[in-house]
Amino acid sequence: MPMFCLQCQETAGGKACTKAGVCGKAAEVANLQDLLLYVSKGISYYSVIAGENGIDNALAQTYPVESLFMTLTNVNFDKEAIIKKIREGLRLKNSLQMQLQNKNIPITNPPDAAAWTANSDEDLESKAVSVGVLATENEDVRSLRALLTYGIKGMAAYYHHAFILGFKDTEIISFIHKALAATLDDCLTADDLVALILETGKYGVTTLALLDQANTTTYGSPEITSVNTGVRQNPGILISGHDLKDLDELLQQTEGTGVDVYTHGEMLPSHYYPAFKKYSHFVGNYGNAWWKQAEEFEKFNGPILMTTNCLVPPKDSYKDRLFTTSIVGFEGIKHIPDRSGNEAKDFEALIEMAKKCLSPTELESGNIVGGFAHQQVLALADKVIEAVKAGAIKKFVVMAGCDGRMKSREYYADFAAKLPQDTVILTAGCAKYRYNKLNLGDIGGIPRVLDAGQCNDSYSLAVIALKLKEVLGLEDINQLPIIYNIAWYEQKAVLVLLALLYLGVKNIRLGPTLPAFLSPNVVKLLVETFGIGGISSVEDDLAIMLREE
Ligand code: FSO
Ligand code: SF4
């Protein structure tokens, strides 16, 4: 089998990608990503021991965050970039070993991931095919390790965003090391792994809170905003992904150049931040969720910057206009280098290109309203509570998460449209594109779709739920009039799910399909412990979910 990857919802046949990724990832790249993860686990093994012995290694604090983020779905398809990161990891592993040796700290029987090293590219390639998910033989242990690893991948991605803005938490990093090292430990029981998975949820909440703090401290608290979906006549740059600092620097550098800036996909919620509202050339949002990018990037006519996932292999029609930055990569696509020290990234190449391009072709006109992150919703708390107490709002429906290509995701548009008029959707993430243009109306001035922001802002939904629980004087989060029908796609959504489980949320519906990496026994455990379920038909799910107390 040339490769084996089942980490996302679109995995081939609902089982695993074994020839090439449905996402476009080549087998060789998939295997090298497995090796990158393996090397990161080895580094984590030594980092745990170093931590126990008071040894500090700054690079070991950031390495797993960056390397794991590179292996998320739709982030880095560039073989050379992955090999470079593996080599960097091997050097780091070696220096950690030396640090431990110099302090006479004994290392007995290190796992292969820690002990292994490579002398040549051939060594990398031959090792890469043997260190993937299937290296764990027992189906349930493999499933628990996968759930743990993918949750940690999501944590790494969210931590990376906070870190870029200067926010750090060494406890989160220590947990990442501990969890990754644990996936190498054959002595751990299924119960041990389940405990670690729940702890991942706990640290997931901490990480999301840190990111919320980073974003709101740096750019202000999101506020209700109407975002234009049309275009102007100037040339433009389109920015996608989740990285607000990249957007910040791009807006500063494009100001006064005659080049407009538009957001795509998960960058839409950046319009809700006060700090970006001062830019008159920050025009609006162009298009929809990530999976529509091929068609929409083509029509944009100007340069496009991918700051994080979700990148789709580009078509020839726009690949010369596409730029990646940070951890994103694709062979043959121009890459904007990282900041050096306090210097901003240099977006001159995009700006100069934009000036020679046509203005974007209009896809639609109108606007989308969002910005209902926790502070904004809490500012409306009186109105919301009044509506709940008066029975005008009967249920909140959390429909956060991801969008994706599968036809079965039409379910979510249909589900949103068929919800009774006395329900309010709480959302975050790109899942919203299935229903945020449906004009679902409002309840006494409260819009029926409250968008908190990116999937990164799922934390807001938890804060809102906990606040409602407090105000309504309830003992258990599950007594709230909130139901959860979440759409997942990649590993950040896995972390958000684990965070919700840690907060005690029960009876979450997860779709459009349950993760292929969950073995029947692990599914059984999730069903029995947390009441997690899949989706069926809109009518049946509505009947059951709206009945649930
Ligand atoms: Fe969507 Fe992609 Fe935010 Fe994900 S753009 S799918 S969970 O990477 O990041 O919601
Ligand atoms: Fe397949 Fe998803 Fe893995 Fe891509 S990330 S190879 S689509 S399972």
Notable characteristics:
19 helices, 549 residues, 6-stranded parallel β-sheet, alpha/beta, binds iron/sulfur cluster, Substrate Binding Domain Of Dnak, Chain:A, Domain 2
The unreliable regions are none
Strand composition percent? 5-15%
Order of strands across the main sheet: 4-3-2-5-6-7
CATH architecture of the domain at 12-218: Up-down Bundle
Q: Specify the CATH class of the domain at 12-218.
A: Mainly Alpha
Which ligands accompany this protein? iron/sulfur/oxygen hybrid cluster, iron/sulfur cluster
Q: Give helix % range.
A: 40-55%
Indicate the multimeric state.
Answer: single chain
Provide the structure class.
alpha/beta
The end-to-end span amounts to 47 Å
Number of separate helices: 19
- How many strands? 15
Radius of gyration: 23 Å
**Structural shape:** globular
- CATH-assigned fold name of the domain at 12-218: Substrate Binding Domain Of Dnak, Chain:A, Domain 2
The overall pLDDT, averaged over residues, is 97
- Profile the largest sheet: 6 strands, parallel
